Amino acid sequence: MSDPTTEKTDSAAFAEAWDAPQKSALAQAEIDRMTDDIIEALKSVYDPEIPVDIYELGLIYKVDLSDDRDVVVEMTLTAPGCPVAGEMPIWVEEAVKKVEGVRSARAELTFDPPWDASKMSDEAKLALNMF
């Protein structure tokens, strides 16, 4: 028969380890630098029909940087029928790959949730006279 006190302690230790933030193999300073550089790279990509970069438009939903320096960008488009739907993810990947330290980049399109103007930054709204 097992000791319930030990089981509780083991369960508590497991729960604590599960909830603990995972340590990255990358130094925090390196993560911060790469994050800033990836954002700048994303800001270099524009929807050809809108004079605002895709980051300020709110088309970037998520960016994951792995310990192996692989980057996955979850993004959307202003409309599912966007004429550059095939090219824009490639533009994003090419821009992110230029960031020092990035090993690979992949852009994944999603339409959940659908994009709307509320996702735009104030800077983008100002540029498009939407105030």
Automatic annotation (TrEMBL):
Pfam family, one: FeS_assembly_P
Domain MIP18 family-like: 36-107
SUPFAM superfamilies hit by this protein: Fe-S cluster assembly (FSCA) domain-like
Transmembrane segments: none
InterPro entries on file: Fe-S_Maturation_MIP18, FSCA_dom_sf, MIP18-like, SUF_FeS_clus_asmbl-assoc
NCBIfam families hit by this protein: SUF_assoc (TIGR02945)
Protein's recorded name: SUF system Fe-S cluster assembly protein
Organism (species): Brevundimonas denitrificans
